[in-house]
Amino acid sequence: MNAQPATEPSRTAVGVTVFAAVMLIMIGVLQAIQGLVALVNDTFYVAGQEYIFTFDLTTWGWIHILLGVVVAVAGYFVLQGKVWARTVGVIVASLSALVNFAWLPHYPLWGLAIIALDVFVIWALTVHGRDITRA
């Protein structure tokens, strides 16, 4: 039998995917903290400009807490090398970017930073995600 030797996964690709998984965990934890702040202190965030999504800060708080927990759990399972977690990671990172876009009137710089990290995570999981399962 002529068995093809398995190609060694790229260390750079594995490193990028691990970094993306850690970023997912951090984004999730930070979003949960952001939501907790919105629940505890209604005067911390001040809406500068009205958008179409004008939820109460308590509603925003719960949205951020729930999404943050899901994002962090997805990041944990991406670190474990689960194939389904990469798909879930891309989906929740996309949702996180959308939620933070709607959150821009309340905290613009923070929202833009999280959106940028979400875009990186989506790129890393779609381009290099399969290398972590082979490593």
SSE layout:
Layout: H1 11-40, H2 57-79, H3 83-102, H4 108-134
Keywords:
mainly alpha, elongated, 74% helix, 135 residues
Report on this structure:
By secondary structure, this protein is mostly helical. It has one domain. It has four helices and no strands. It is elongated. It starts with 10 loop residues before the first helix and ends with a helix. The model has no long low-confidence stretch (mean pLDDT 83).
Provide a concise account of the structure shown.
The protein contains 4 helices and no strands. The chain is mostly helical and 135 residues long. The chain is elongated, with a radius of gyration of 17 Å.
Count of all domains: 1
List the total number of helices: 4
Mean pLDDT equals: 83
Percent helix among the residues?
over 70%
First-last Cα distance: 25 Å
Global shape: elongated
Sheet of most strands: none
Low-confidence stretches: none
**Helix/sheet category:** mainly alpha
Gyration radius, rounded: 17 Å
Task: Please trace the helix and strand order, writing H or E for each element.
Answer: HHHH
InterPro entries: DUF7144
Domain DUF7144: 17-130
Keywords: Membrane, Transmembrane, Transmembrane helix
Organism: Fodinibacter luteus
